[in-house]
Amino acid sequence: MKTIIKLILLTFSAAAFFSCTETIELDMEQTSPRVIVDGLITNEDTEHYVRLTESVGFYQEGQAPGVSGAVVEVIDNEGNVYNFTEKETEPGLYTSRFAGQIGNTYNLRVSLPDGTERLASDRMEPVMAIDRLEWQLDEDEQEGPVEEGFFYRILIYGQEPAATKDYYQFKFYRNDTIQNFDSGTGIFIADDELIGGYINGLESPEYYKAGDEARFEMYRISRDTYLFYNDLANILNGDGGMTSPSPVNPRSNVYSSQGPELGLFQVSAVDKTSIVVGE
User: Fold this and answer.
1) Which end of the chain has fewer CB atoms at under 10 Å, N or C?
2) What is the pTM for the complete model shown?
3) 229 phi and psi, to 5 degrees?
4) Interior CA angle at 246 toward 242 and 52, to 5°?
5) Which long-range contacts (CB under 8 A, 24 or more apart) does 11-15 make?
6) How far apart are CA 273 and CA 264, in angstroms?
């Protein structure tokens, strides 16, 4: 989950209106900055990360500022302690190298410079194994491609266990670049009801061209993580119309002594594979 989450906290108050043609003036009152937690641990032997940033005002441009000087540690249910060190070149980014273990629960503790803490917990469940990828020429798209040369679909095959209720996150890459497509984030989620047992040729959301290396990653995610991404998608894809619900922050698994906080601590087993289109 390397997408930088930039959440905006707003309080809206509008003047009363008497007809649908009257101009409505919005008073956007900015709340105080809040810390956002963005963390990911997988079963790969790699540098896992916890990113700490501050929320920003509605009119503020640029990236959210990182939160430096925190103490970040993760403790699993076996008592192993993983200390995360802040990157000198990237304030607010804390990393630690290890391989997460399937079946373990990982508990995050963040001690912030102001003396407050952020806590989160997530369990690593086994992920479905990807049997194989295939590429397929779409002849209709070839006759009138949206982008010249891009008319190959990637098909995914694998066996999804039917005995449990499972949630998944998919990421698609083209030549090591994550593909955002229509989602705007590069993140796609599904539950096993949508997948339905054996995955028999699940199509990629977009097209590739011959010679592209297509990589597919499948993450097993918890229900809390699924709800977070689902809420985030609803916010990003909302039309903002008068009949749309008021925007709210995505449901989070991060807490402080004051209650739910902002962000997500994700623990996921991942399986990945790649294929060269046309070969």
Assistant:
1) C
2) 0.82
3) -65, -35
4) 140
5) 12/246
6) 26
